[in-house]
Structure formats: structure tokens, C-alpha cells
Amino acid sequence: MRDADEVSSQAMVVYRSPVSYDAPLRSYYYVNPAYLTPNLHLFGAINDQCILGILSFLDGTSLVTAGSSCRALHALSNNDNLWLSLCREEWCVSPEHLAFAGRVEGKALYRFAQQQLQRVAQDILQAQLHVPSLPSHTVQALTRSLFVGPP
Fold this sequence. Notes:
151 residues; mainly alpha; Monooxygenase; 2 strands; F-box-like_dom_sf; F-box domain-containing protein; F-box_dom
């Protein structure tokens, strides 16, 4: 049993006090903090380090998608260390590889590396499509000469 000094009220106390008789009544509500509901969210029982560990298994596209699902995941998915480790894993790029000495965020570095890789892939594809090839009649003549012996 608690002492009388330690016992707090278990009831909600509502107090209405008029400021003046001409003004409308203002209501003041005093609530026992024990009755306040904590800010519960989806990951209330899991700490941020565990969630970051789970998010570290995702690729960049999945990480962006997870970050757009709720505010808590948005804040966690913008973790700079998470994006930098993703850049090192997927693209083997770190901020030290860049020519300028400014601060680079991990998410921006990931997007930059992804755009550069897409550009390189497009350049390779275009280069292969524009390779001059032999005319069809020359290819046919060479093919015939392979299967027909020397004259």
C-alpha cells in the first residue's frame, strides 16, 4: 500500500472557470498523465536499430518504397549510413571516390550512381546498335565461300 503522499488521483478532473461574466466560458481540462495514451505506431515495440537492420537488406528501389509507406519508416529510410552502405554494396562507390570535397548524402550518391550506370548501359546499347555491319550480299558470298571449296 502506498503512502498518502504518493497516491495520485485516478480520476479526470474537469474545471470550468469563467474569465469574466461577459466573455464566453472557457473550459480547462486537467488530465492525470497516467491516462494519456502513448503515441503508438506500427513499430512501437521495436527499436530503431532493429528496423535499420531490416532495412539494410533492401535494395534502393525497395528502400524508397518502404520509406513512402509511413512517417516512421520515412525518417528511418533517410538514414545516411544506410544509403552509403547501399552505395558501397551495389555500385562500389563511396564519397571518397568523388572529385569534390563537399559533403555528399548517401541517398543523393545512390541516385547519382544509378543514373550514371543507366547512362553507361544506354551508351553501350547504342554503340552496339550502330556498329557498321557488312552488306547482306557480302555476308552471303563469304558464307558460300566457306562451304564451297576453293575453285
